[in-house]
TrEMBL record:
GO terms for molecular function: hydrolase activity. It comes from the Bacteria. Pfam families: IU_nuc_hydro. This is Nucleoside hydrolase. Residues 62-380 form the Inosine/uridine-preferring nucleoside hydrolase domain. Residues 1-21 form the signal peptide. PANTHER family: INOSINE-URIDINE PREFERRING NUCLEOSIDE HYDROLASE, URIDINE NUCLEOSIDASE. Transmembrane segments: none annotated. Keywords: Glycosidase, Hydrolase, Signal. Residues 33-51 have a biased composition (Low complexity). InterPro entries: Inosine/uridine_hydrolase_dom, IUNH, Ribo_hydro-like. Residues 29-58 are annotated as: Disordered.
Length: 392
């Protein structure tokens, strides 16, 4: 085990306190190591019928917790929710694709672009629960044979302030300021204020969610639903052979979140996101027609890339989580499994394991795992919502 990682594990309580320094809460105890039990190789499909079609939940209350970027999958997911009339109570940022401090600046600017500057943005955890692995990634890749060609926030130093980024957000810094307070307390306060009404969107590492439920466990039965973009169950990971990025960045937090008995957990993993591609035909459809501030950002940030390479394609991730929340009938195949995250440091570090109900190790909680969606109808929603004038 690399020295930096060993120090983080042995000093878990201290590392958790550091991770929570910006969140004014108690440190987390170390997460328990997983059972040696493994998923059954003969697990039946267990597909559950998708939810009945219904209108978009206009006014539904959401806390948007993510590693916010600039017109990346999480900012587009936020656009989708707000364009459809969802009540976003606030955005809470966490380090993952970006540093939480960067996420605050990007979120403020994207909200301003969409005409929603009044939505509060709370900066959250800067580091995973067991501390940063930034200094040990090379050793991790060498020892475990993992392809860590992308490390998110760990690829560059953490900025000192959300208004002092190496490169300002698209269009400059927002006029609105970051909200006073911290992400963890905001999550707790809002769930208590609106019991059984708030859906937590955990679209980045689950650090803030884990800290919230450990600090204030009384909120667990009061949460309406948790929607994750996380994990890889029956497909390879995208951070080495086992782990999906959001779980890989903070496996201990993901283990706590998935192991919390929330009333309802919906997971959008790589199993489904690997089947959805975004390329020039989808881009052209999105930006067609009368221009809007959202379309203009797509033209400015995505247009040059397609001009350079018209054949380029990428997957969509958080956008799918937002879409199936808005339209559950987009789900054409799903399965209910008991979920646990592997946290033993090794080649499987961050693997999400899904067990048959009744055959799971202690602590594993049920979650509905999305496996397939109706892709043409997804793009109808995607282009339709993002293509209309911003919601005000």
């Amino acid at each position: 085990m690399p020295l930096g990682r060993a120090s983080a594990v042995l000093g878990a309580a201290l590392a958790a306190a550091v991770a929570l320094a910006a969140c004014a809460g108690p440190a987390l105890p170390p997460a328990a190591q997983p059972s040696a039990a493994q998923p059954s190789a003969a697990q039946p499909p267990g597909t559950r019928a998708p939810a009945a079609p219904g209108p978009a939940p206009t006014g539904a209350k959401v806390i948007f917790d993510t590693d916010f970027g600039e017109l990346n999958d999480d900012s587009q997911a936020l656009f989708l929710l707000q364009q459809a009339g969802v009540n976003v109570l606030g955005v809470t940022t966490v380090s993952g694709n970006t540093w939480s401090v960067e996420g605050a600046a990007y979120a403020l600017r994207q909200l301003e672009l969409q005409g929603q500057p009044g939505v509060p943005v709370y900066q959250g955890s800067a580091d995973p629960l067991f501390g940063s692995r930034q200094a040990t990634l090379a050793a991790e890749a060498q020892r475990f044979g993992a392809d860590i060609s992308y490390a998110g926030a760990w690829e560059h130093p953490q900025p000192a302030d959300y208004r002092q980024l190496p490169r300002p957000p698209y269009g400059g810094y927002a006029k609105a300021a970051r909200a006073d307070g911290n992400a963890v307390d905001f999550i707790v306060d809002q769930v208590k204020r609106y019991p059984h009404e708030v859906t937590l969107f955990a679209l980045g590492p689950a650090t803030n969610v884990a800290l919230a439920v450990k600090k204030n466990p009384e909120i667990v039965p009061l949460v309406k639903q948790v929607v994750y973009m996380a994990g890889a169950f029956d497909v390879p990971g995208n951070q080495g052979p086992a782990a999906e990025f959001n779980v890989w960045f903070d496996p201990e937090a993901a283990r706590i979140a998935f192991g919390t008995p929330f009333p309802d957990q919906l997971v959008v993993p790589l199993d489904v996101t690997d089947t959805v591609w975004y390329g020039k035909p989808e881009y052209d459809r999105l930006v067609a027609g009368e221009n809007t501030p959202i379309k203009q950002e797509f033209k400015d940030l995505h247009g040059p890339k397609f001009d350079q390479d018209p054949g380029r394609r990428t997957h969509l991730w958080d956008q799918i989580a937002a879409a199936v929340f808005l339209r559950p009938d987009l789900i054409t195949q799903s399965v209910v499994r008991q979920v646990q995250v592997y946290t033993q440091y090794g080649v499987n570090y961050g693997r999400t394991m899904g067990f048959e109900p009744g055959r799971a190790p202690a602590g594993a909680q049920p979650a509905r795992i999305v496996q397939r969606i109706d892709i043409p109808r997804f793009y109808d929603l995607y282009a339709g919502e993002l293509g209309k004038p911003p919601a005000r």
